[in-house]
Amino acid sequence: MRSASRSRRAAGIGLAVVAAAGGLVACSSSSPSSDGGGSASASQTAGAYTIWDPYPQYDKSSEWVKLLETCGTQAGVTVERTGFDTTDLTNKALLAAQQGNSPDVLIVDNPVVSTLAEAGVLTTTEENKLDVTAIAPNLLAAGQSGGKTYGVPIGANTLALYYNKEVLKEAGVDVASVKDWASLTAALEKVKGAGKKGITFSAIGTEEGSFQFLPWFWGSGANLTKLDSPEGVSAVALWSDWLKKGYAPNSVINNTQTTSWQEFATGDFAFAENGTWQLANAKEAGFDYGIIPIPSKAGGTAPAPTGGEFVSIPVQSDTGRYAASQKLVACLTSADNSLTTTTTLSYIAPTEAVQAKQVAATPELQVWVEAVKAAKGRTSDDLGTKYPKISEPMWGAVQAALSGSKPPQEAMTAAQTAAASATQ
What we know:
alpha/beta, 12% strand, 18 helices, four-stranded mixed β-sheet, single chain, disordered N terminus
């Protein structure tokens, strides 16, 4: 931050924990994609402003890059854009800040914001004058740390349950009856009895597995500061019981969200937990599908974790650059451009006004809008950089329970002990 000395910032960066956020929207490449003359270096030339984003799949011909260039023109500057793989971008951003060579605008996965903020890499919205008043509070919370906000969400995605209408029909299941864990489990029992497969999801031992487990964990009423609460244990037991009874396949232990989707796309499964980013694939699956929110244990919509990125302005030694950077970010996140941006990235907009436009254009997005309204950030509840230290033992506990190496209670007790030690 501007109030911090460069030496203090560098020390903070050197100690920063890089959170390995889950692959919520798959990038097609892990190598940098540079447009407008950009490169992996953030060195600034006269009139040129650097933007780093986690979308290497979009090249110069894409709507996304065209929008960046348009915003540059409106701000009176030339944009030099580089797209990185998500994890690579985090490491590059920390290194660039340590070297005093940060990009002017940085777009990062929302769990990474607290890591960069606590390392002194980012300016606050109070400092950079970005307007966040119209942003939904639950989405904005993912970019907050220590009571300060460090960017603007460019959009959000989250999880829900896709279902195969024909499979449910053959099993005699009315999807409207699925309102809580008990009714969902009853539906899975009927599906299995009809000779079909119940539900597929990703429980892989990575952040991706935690991302998929969180709606059930939070939907039980559990809190991440107490993994082994009765509520938290009940969420692990739910998944474990589904495997034991054959309602979910053993493959979920190694499934990514992509391979889980591929299982659903066979047409044999009744349900699949997945996100907005699969909508295009769902339309090409060759069978009628629907989408419902993930139910909480006692009914209602479970809080699913928010995916999506924040647009932020890194600390610069030349504070005179902030004015143009603010114009670039304001342009990218404006109501006029938000619809184009969120449509391109398959996100739900962070403001109600643009969400309404999305639903008007594509009515099937209504369920996703509702899911996003109920969602919460993984680093919310003032967890910040503690989250990855909790997430890893949590996904390990889920793996242990699903594999049968530990019962749910024992697995979550061990996870809580590890998380408490790591976050002291």
